[in-house]
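lol so apparently i was supposed to do this last week
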Amino acid sequence: MATFAEQPLADLLSVSRASKAGAGERLRLSIVGMGLVGRRHAAAINQLSSVEICAVVDADDAITAQVANAGIESYNDLCAMINATRPDGIILSTPTNLHMSQALACVESGIPVLIEKPIAHDLAAAQSIVSKSDTLGVPVMVGHHRRFNPIIQKAKDVLTQGLIGKIRVVDAKCWFAKPNDYFETAPWRKINGAGPVSINLVHDIDLLRFLCGEIIEVKAMMAPSARGHDIEDVAVAIFRFENGALGTVSVSDNAVSPWSWEVTSGEYPIYPFTGQSAYQIGGSRGALSVPDLKIWQHEGEPDWWSSIDSATLSVAMADPLVNQIKHFAAVIQGEAKPLVSGYEGLCTLAVIDAMREAAKTGRAICPADLIAVDKTAAEENMRFTAKARAHVKADSAWTNQAP
Ligand SMILES: NC(=O)c1ccc[n+]([C@@H]2O[C@H](COP(=O)([O-])OP(=O)(O)OC[C@H]3O[C@@H](n4cnc5c(N)ncnc54)[C@H](O)[C@@H]3O)[C@@H](O)[C@H]2O)c1
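anyway here it is w/ nicotinamide-adenine-dinucleotide bound
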């Protein structure tokens, strides 16, 4: 199957305006960074009649030439695009180390921005984005798109309704084998900060926070890349959640396995489906595995000597990237607060940093202590999150409450 990366950009972009009715009524979005993920955003925008791609920014001349050939405005420089085009919203899908400077440019221009995950290359950078967003009142969303997957919404409902009782234990696996050319085609993926903890596990940690509640204590170990890159290729962590549950997570991009969200969710067809699960959540009255949505329960009271039965919950699949763009459009129009705000992205990144610190020092680290570096900004951000939560709670489809 041709991936979005292999599909000619002209094909991907030609859909955006030509075949959509209602010119002038659509929200005008600009994609910055038309690489692997930028193309997925373009494909998602193509699915929706209410939005269009008005401009693309990429540093690669070969890409901007293809964009221009498709009849879409193209730029090498973000600020030049903002000045010339003033889009309604900007999607940043550039290498992570560019997120801070580019997000600040968007926010300072008053343009809502969807930043690919992780929000930034480090916590200080993330915090400056969140603070600026708060000060100027310009919304920031972070691209933890899996929260928009109906599977996760269903799992969240099961946990919030207490169907497995009180969560006691969680295990999440994120194991797969990336081929060598993944690193050769984009060498930034080999350097510090671009390892599987920041690139991949960050998604799983965001989901664990969403599903199981805040992570308040972290212990971890990491091992350097066996391929000789300047990154880890395996990491294991233990978490304590605010609600008293404990969890283990592990990631490797150099281990063959059928157990990761990518190959078990069916979310993105380039990853062959294995039918396994990636997360197991154990509660006082039952267990839930995700993404296969299997609930396990004893017939009567919980008892390891009585038989345990499983039922698989059904869910109507929908592309979370499309749902995320719909939500971004609602945020731009002031109809919704971000489900994954800049502050949520910051909290998830704090867990990543806590893992790194814990692995380096051998100590247990509290992620909230890392965020408290700039208390004033953190308090501002809390207010922003509180407002966002108030909105989210009002809409039962997108509940953001920890069970
Ligand atoms: N949501 C997800 O599932 C997911 C998956 C993979 C990657 N990501 C994130 O998306 C971001 C991009 O990852 P990718 O794998 O698509 O990278 P990529 O290397 O495939 O694409 C990055 C693009 O940005 C362009 N670029 C570089 N510098 C630029 C600049 N100064 N201005 C404009 N464009 C510039 C490059 O030319 C390239 O086209 C990263 O933050 C990554 O963590 C998210």
